[in-house]
Every structure is written in structure tokens, then in C-alpha cells.
């Protein structure tokens, strides 16, 4: 059984017991989260597709880890104009372990 969920502007294909990394802060480690924007659920021969979401379907998980991803460098320049800009950025992330997929 797997499901396609939408959270924080991204779509994820999830299975029970799988860990996903979401590039946003959702909650502290140990808290339970529930995703209700389920776009598709597939179970053996039964497939449900929402338009855009399936009513009553939920995916539950537990926050395992929070932190910040490695730093990326953003560098802009225009040649022959002495224009240079250098910035760094570290994105927050949350690692969630999927515990249950509920379909209605």
C-alpha cells in the first residue's frame, strides 16, 4: 500500500515505515503529525484518485529528526561590470517516519 501526499508545496510518494525528508519545520522530534491532503491511495487492486484530494483519507507519521540542511552558496555576477553578490543559505528540514495510511 502506498499513497501520494502533498505538504508544504511538495508531493511525496509514501509507504508505511518509510522516512521522508520535508524541507520545512513541522514539529519537534517525537510529535505526531497527520497529513490530510492525500491525492492518491493504492492498495493491491484498489486505487483511489482524488480530485484534487481524497475525502477522509489520512497519512499519519512521527517526527524523528529536525535540523538544517548543508549550506548552499548563491553567487551572481555580471561579466565586465564589477558586479558580484555572494550569499549562503541553509534550509530547515524535518524527517518524518510514516506510521499509518488510512483510506476511506
Automatic annotation (TrEMBL):
GO terms for molecular function: rRNA binding; structural constituent of ribosome. Keywords: Ribonucleoprotein, Ribosomal protein, RNA-binding, rRNA-binding. InterPro entries: bL21-like, bL21-like_sf, Ribosomal_bL21. Signal peptide: none annotated. It comes from the Bacteria. GO terms for cellular component: cytoplasm; ribonucleoprotein complex; ribosome. GO terms for biological process: translation. Belongs to the bacterial ribosomal protein bL21 family. This protein binds to 23S rRNA in the presence of protein L20. Part of the 50S ribosomal subunit. Contacts protein L20. This is Large ribosomal subunit protein bL21.
Amino acid at each position: 500500500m502506498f499513497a501520494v501526499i502533498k505538504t508544504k508545496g511538495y508531493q511525496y510518494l509514501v509507504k508505511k515505515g518509510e522516512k521522508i525528508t520535508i524541507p520545512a519545520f513541522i514539529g519537534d522530534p517525537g510529535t505526531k503529525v497527520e497529513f490530510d491532503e492525500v491525492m492518491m491511495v493504492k492498495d493491491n487492486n484498489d486505487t483511489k484518485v482524488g480530485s484534487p484530494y481524497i475525502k477522509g483519507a489520512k497519512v499519519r507519521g512521527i517526527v524523528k529528526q529536525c535540523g538544517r540542511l548543508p549550506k548552499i552558496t548563491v553567487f551572481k555576477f555580471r561579466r565586465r561590470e564589477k558586479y558580484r553578490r555572494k550569499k549562503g543559505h541553509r534550509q530547515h528540514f524535518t524527517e518524518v517516519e510514516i506510521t499509518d495510511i488510512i483510506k476511506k
